[in-house]
Structures are given as structure tokens and as C-alpha cells.
């Protein structure tokens, strides 16, 4: 508890000024009671018994602060919810894109596998396989990945032209076309390469 200071200065006719540490406010007093911006009171007629009530100024101020706090929290909850929804949408489209890419890769591999079987004994199409002599002896047991094509799929290449790169350990190797013609890759970037795998097919007779 602390000290409370309050003083009323009469202005006559029931009017007066209430002075306290919280400020100055006017009031009007009658024999039935009093009224001020902060509230009102009236006498009940019973000695020492008076009814007092405020206009809710302080209560409204408190409620206003609570309301602002709730609005602030609600605003950030909405923002956070929107960000989460956007991230979920972004995640959904990323997953959908990756799924489409996966399906396309599977379909492409199936198509290439059929073509390899179809043309494996053909004199029109030659198959470029990944051979053991492409690697030094000490690297042949290491994991090899197809890094990417150096020419566009379906383009015309010359014999001994560099057409693709692969990665083994921290080394990058290059593959050369074994014939001139129209090239079609059987491997996609990131695919595992094993000895004997078909890397690409080259159509040696162009119509």
C-alpha cells in the first residue's frame, strides 16, 4: 500500500475539482449524490451507506489494452498460419515436381531399355558401354556416377568427340563417342554407372 492524495476544491453550486496524483477532474455534488467523469454515487438514505459506481473508464482502458494485445497476438497467429500454409503449398509443389521427375526418369529408362534390346544386334545403331579400361585399376571398385552430357540429346556427334562426363571419387572422367551419328543417352545425371552399362546409343545412319 502507498499514500493516497485527494483533495476537492469547491467552485460553488455543487461544482468542484477533484485533485489527486492521477490528475484533476470536475465533479458535481447534490444532496442525492455526486457525478464525475469517473463515475457517480448516490445516497441510500441509510446513514453511512452510499452506492458508488464507475463509468468503466479504467476498466475500458484495461480492456482496450487487453483487446490490443489479443489483436496483436491474433495478427501474428494469422501471419504465422499463412507462412505455414505457404510452406506447405511450396512443399506440396516441390514433392509433386519431384514425383513427376521420378516418373519421367522411370519412363525414360524403360524406353531406353527397350531400344537397347531392340538395337543391340543392329548395324545401324551402336551402343557405347562403360568399359573397365575407362578407369585406372585402383578406381574400378569405387562408385561411379554419370555427371551429365556434354552434347544435347538427339544431336549429331563425331567419332572420338567428348560426349559425357562421369565422377568417381574426386575425379572427373570423360567419355568419347565410338562412332559418328545421332546420339541418345541412356543415363541421366546422378545415375549409377557400372562396368558394362549402356551410356548412350549412336544411330550411325541418319535418314
Plain-language structure description:
The protein has about 210 residues and is an alpha+beta fold. It has 3 domains: about 5-55, no CATH class; about 55-120; about 120-205, RNA polymerase II/Efflux pump adaptor protein, barrel-sandwich hybrid domain (OB fold (Dihydrolipoamide Acetyltransferase, E2P)), CATH 2.40.50. It contains 1 helix and 13 strands; from the N terminus they run ββββββαβββββββ. It has a 6-stranded antiparallel β-sheet with strand order 1-2-3-4-5-6, with no helix packed on it. The protein starts with 5 loop residues before the first strand and ends with a strand.
How do the strands and helices of this protein lay out in sequence?
Blueprint: E1 6-12, E2 15-20, E3 23-29, E4 33-36, E5 39-43, E6 50-54, H1 57-119, E7 125-129, E8 144-149, E9 156-157, E10 162-168, E11 171-176, E12 181-185, E13 198-203
Antiparallel strand pairs: 1-2, 2-3, 3-4, 4-5, 5-6, 7-13, 8-10, 9-12, 10-11, 12-13
